[in-house]
Structures are given as C-alpha cells and as structure tokens.
Amino acid sequence: MNIFRLFGDLSHLAAIAILLLKIWKTRSCAGVSGKTQLLFAVCFITRYIDLFLHFVSLYNTEKVMKLIYISASVFTCYLIFFKFKATYDGNHDSMRAEFLIVPAAGLACLINTKFDAIEILWTFSIYLEAVAILPQLFLISKTGEAETITSHYLFAQGSYRALYILNWIYRYHYESHVDTIAIVAGVVQTILYCDFFYLYITKVVKGQKIVLPA
Amino acid sequence: DETSAVKDEL
C-alpha cells in the first residue's frame, strides 16, 4: 500500500458517500445518471466475485472495502430506481449502456492476461469502469448544468483513478509491478474527466456552478 | 507479475 493508493481509495469512498448523501438529504436523484450507477455496481460485482465464491473472513480491510463498495453501489441504485424513482431524470439519462457493456465484454475476451472466467470478469470490470462515467457526463451535457454537490462527487470519482495512476507509477518504480490492462484503462478513464476537471477547477472552486453551453 | 490470479488492488 502506498500513499497514492490510500488517497485513491479514500477519494473513491468519498465519492460514493457524497452521492449517497446528496440523494438521501435532497431526497432526489435529479442530475444523477442511474445508468452510470448501475454500471459501477456491475463493475464491483464482477470485480469482487471472489467474495461470493468462497467465504472470506472479514478481518482484513480489503474485504471490508469490497463489501462496502458493492453494498453502497447497490443501495445507490435502489435509491435511484426505486425509492426516489419519481425524481429520476430518465429522459436525459439516455446514453445506451449496451454500447458500453458489449464492447467492454468483447474486449475482455480478446485482450486479457489469462483466458479464464474470473480473469475475464475482472478484465471486463476494468474496461467497463473506464467508460462507466460516460452516461453521467452525457446527462450533464444534455441538461447543460451540474449541481455543485454532483460536481464534488464527479471530482472525487475522477480523482480516485487519477491517484491510482500515480500509484502505478510508484509501484513500477519501486516494486517493478506493472498491470498493463489496469493502467491503460485507468488512463483512458482519467482522460474522460479532463474536460470536467477543467470546468471544476475554473468554476466550482470559485463558488460558481458548472453550466455548459447548452 | 501480471498473471498473478489474486489481484492486490481494489
């Protein structure tokens, strides 16, 4: 464990908590893409499938973190699609998730480190996570704005994988550890946030709201 | 190494 991965995971936890708080406190999921949350839930379930395959003692934090990620993302989907369904902005959350899932699944079968079920599920989860934020960014571009709290969520979500890139640089340099698939997908994922990061740093930090030219 | 089945990152 290094400082970059630690802060990356903390940033990821913060993102999940910010979103849950926003939906719970405002009792509304306006401006939140349900599809992105579904894709994240799929990512966690396919990536941490080992939790279901054999019971693991919960003593170590990593297993607890995996359970937190899975349960929090499933609970977020429950809030969006059931509890606060009336506030779900289905019309603007219109990016076809199939266009993300099918290519990620296909690519996972073609490019992976080992052709076995668990490894392909993990690879699929990595590829899907890289593009899972697209429906959310698409929704913001359609509505032309993002609530400040949603911007904070996106900043934390984007920072998590950006910090993981620093973690991979650190591990390459000190542990000569390289996981090409995770690195390439992580770089693609972070690049997708660049436009948002620019808007966040130039606007939200100054207290303005993000309003895209509609 | 990449082929390690057990992934040590979240």
UniProtKB/TrEMBL annotation, chain A:
Leader sequence residues: none
Keyword Endoplasmic reticulum attached: yes
Record GO biological process: protein retention in ER lumen; protein transport; vesicle-mediated transport
Chief place where the protein resides: membrane
Coiled coil (residue ranges): none
Pfam families: ER_lumen_recept (PF00810)
Its membrane topology: Multi-pass membrane protein
Keywords: Cytoplasmic vesicle, Endoplasmic reticulum, ER-Golgi transport, Membrane, Protein transport, Receptor, Transmembrane, Transmembrane helix, Transport
Subcellular location: Cytoplasmic vesicle, COPI-coated vesicle membrane; Endoplasmic reticulum membrane
One Gene Ontology cellular component: endoplasmic reticulum membrane
InterPro entries linked to this entry: ER_ret_rcpt
Record has Zinc as a keyword: no
GO MF terms held by the record: ER retention sequence binding
Transmembrane segments: 36-55, 67-84, 96-115, 121-140, 182-201
Family: Belongs to the ERD2 family.
Protein name per its UniProtKB record: ER lumen protein-retaining receptor
Species in which this protein is naturally found: Oikopleura dioica (Tunicate)
High-level lineage: Eukaryota, Metazoa, Chordata, Tunicata, Appendicularia
